[in-house]
Amino acid sequence: MSMNNCRGKFIVFEGLDGSGKGTQISLLSKALSEKGIRVLETAEPTQSATGGLIRDTLAGYQKRTAYELAALFLTDRIFHNTSVNGIKNMLDSGITVICDRYYYSSFAYQGIDTDLKWVMNMNLNCPEIIKPDLCIFLDVPTEQCDERIDSRQSREIFENVATLNRIRKRFFDVFALLEGSENIRIISAAGSIDEVHEAVVSSVWEVLGIQ
Ligand code: TYD
């Protein structure tokens, strides 16, 4: 059953913690549904066994090297694409997939502590990892992150902001490397929820060919 004309679109959201990805994904999902477009919301790491290993590592319960973690994210991503209810089958059946984080996060987070080229190549050259039709990066200004940090955690503010800054810069370096080969839109997440939603919708409508 070949339904190339009806293939769903694959939209990825990236952004730092507190960038409002969750809120914007819900709003976009609702807007697409209202247009009669079938949508699947998904996220990485997934709920797979490998996703569990990843979460244990991120939480500090299990120690792994950055290379092991990068490889686990790759494994989880292949599962995410090829499992029965995975990205590939959903797109093939005409469903538009919205994913919270994807390989751009591996480049930004694992690329710092490993060899960035290695992480990029194994993800971008893997035939079972589908290239998104659109990646939306919700860009939060550091001051706004700062405001969102609970004052009770003031001892950690600088460290947190410094880390976020480092990762934000890494995302931009990676986007520069990917220019021309990936469809990436950087959207300022500094405005109100509605303003950001408007910007998201106009990018997505363009990719979907909706007026
Ligand atoms: P989580 O709390 O599940 O979601 P979020 O921060 O997006 O609300 O955290 C996912 C964490 O995993 C986040 O800190 C980024 C990290 N991550 C990587 O390091 N590499 C990856 O490839 C992906 C997909 C996520």
Give a quick precis of the structure:
Helix content is 55%, strand content 13%. The chain has 211 residues and is α/β, with parallel strands linked by helices. The protein binds thymidine-5'-diphosphate.
3D structure, described in words:
This protein is an alpha/beta fold and 211 residues long. It has helices at residues 21-34, 49-58, 66-82, 87-92, 103-113, 116-124, 142-148, 154-178, 193-208; strands spanning 10-15, 39-43, 96-100, 134-139, 184-188. The protein has a five-stranded parallel sheet. Helix 1 crosses helix 9, helix 2 (49-58) runs antiparallel to helix 3 (66-82) and helix 5 (103-113) crosses helix 8. The longest helix has 25 residues, at 154-178. The two termini are 29 Å apart. Bound molecules: thymidine-5'-diphosphate. Thymidine-5'-diphosphate is lined by residues 17, 44-45, 58, 73, 100-101, 105-106, 109-110. Thymidine-5'-diphosphate (TYD) binds at residues 17, 44-45, 58, 73, 100-101, 105-106, 109-110.
